[in-house]
Amino acid sequence: MKKLLVIAFVMVAAFALAEINLSVFGGYAFTITSTPVDAASASYIDVALDLTYGISNQFDAGVGVGFAYFLNSAATELINASQNAFTLDIFAVGKYSIGIDDNSKVVMRVFGGASIPELNFKSLGYVFGAGAFYSRKYEGMRIGLGASVEMRNYGEGKSMTSVPVGVRIDVSF
Fold first, then answer.
1. What is the pTM of this model?
2. Separation of CA 163 from chain center
3. What would the mean pLDDT of 88-109 be, rounded to a whole number?
């Protein structure tokens, strides 16, 4: 336990000395394909929080946590969950930025990691995604719009591909 506390302290100290970027994403995702077919009408609200470190002028890497709340019962077969299904996602994230002018840029984001339906580790799956956002600088933060493609897999014969469309807010410390 002491080793974990020391590692956590070192990580916090390292992040404290660096430029940290905090990104919040919220969006609506609609499913384009799924197995089983009954889950094809599943849609969900997706919220994610990324904490990244600037590795170079255009590339950031870090970790993130996400929450997906399924809006209808179509996802119950997919993740073996109740009527009001949700998943907790924990992932690594990488972002590459292409500047357009002084105040705007296009951000490409990739992520991947574990997805835990209703905090039930027996149904543990994974989530991967890639997307692009146009963002503009407003008073020390960036606000952007964009979309991504996201794949979720929860075991043999249980997967879905969806398109989350949403808003992103980036704040640098």
1. 0.82
2. 12
3. 94
